[in-house]
Amino acid sequence: MDPTSHGVLSSGGPVRAGSAGGAWTVNDLDRAAAGRLEDYRTASDRSDRALALAQVGRYDEADRKMAEALAVTPDSAWAHLRKARLELLRGDIAGMALALRRAMETSEPPLTERQRALAEALLRLG
Q1: CATH code of the domain containing 66
Q2: CA angle, corner 113, sides to 4 and 70, nearest 5?
Q3: Of 12, 51, 86, 112, which residue is 20 to 30 A from 92 by alpha carbon distance?
Q4: Which pTM does this prediction carry?
């Protein structure tokens, strides 16, 4: 993938590079150069869709979409946070806690401060 292409430039890497993004920036640009950026985008879309499906009670479909997302991005803290929210909607507190712990341990990308605060608050509920 061309590092000057729209896909790479819109991924946030160059923005973070100018704001001390360090390892995040390098990881984003490495993924883009390896052609994996689209995989991450697709996985993010699938985990978003999984959460939306859970919000309307379509848990079987939600589980399939989440499994697809996590198969591509097993270390995505954001996907694991969405999985935790899916489990909470289902009423599975133990499943929620497991996904939250995984979200707090992973780093591709890591949780933002706000997401980490949400994860910690949800863990206190369980």
Answers
A1: 1.25.40.10
A2: 65
A3: 112
A4: 0.72
Structure tokens at 69: 């997302």
Residue-level pLDDT, tens digit, the chain, 126 residues: 444 344 433 444 444 444 445 665 666 566 555 656 777 788 889 999 999 999 999 999 999 999 999 999 899 999 999 999 999 999 999 999 999 999 999 988 889 999 999 999 999 987
Burial 100-124 (b: 16+ CB within 10 A, else e): bebbbebebbbbeeebeebbeebee
68: exposed, middle or buried (Cβ count in 10 Å: 0-12, 13-18, 19+): middle
> Residue 115 is part of which domain span?
7-125
